[in-house]
Specification:
Elements (H helix, E strand, L loop, with lengths): L1 H13 L6 H22 L15 H23 L8 H23 L1
Helix pairs in contact: 1-2, 1-3, 3-4
């Protein structure tokens, strides 16, 4: 799961700067799925199925990546976008903090 978490983190953290990286990550994941399926069918024995919730310890890592990526992408938009040139630095920081708190509240409503 580390490879998937790393790619997901890079896409989430820097999507606002390089949107095309999402398509490359999707292609990479699809190729990896096919390669893993071939290995399971032709090289290894079938694994014993176990019922689990999510991806175990990686759930916390993915949640942290999600929270950090919200702040990173909002920061990239607020501080490097030409749309916000006429807004003062104080207002940009205030908008960043308020937007992050709104994202946390929306996430809490969706998950619980």
């Amino acid at each position: 799961y580390m490879q998937v978490a790393l790619q997901c983190g890079l896409v989430l953290l820097f999507f606002a700067a390089v949107p095309g990286v999402a398509a490359l990550a999707l292609a990479s994941h699809l190729l990896q799925i096919r390669a893993d399926a071939w290995k399971l069918c032709h090289v290894y024995r079938r694994p014993f199925p176990e019922e689990v919730f999510g991806v175990g310890a990686w759930n916390g890592v993915m949640e942290l990546l999600m929270r950090v990526s919200v702040v990173t992408n909002l920061g990239l938009v607020f501080f490097s976008s030409s749309l916000m040139d006429d807004v003062s630095q104080e207002k940009k920081w205030l908008m960043l903090v308020v937007s992050e708190r709104v994202a946390v509240v929306v996430t809490a409503f969706i998950w619980h």
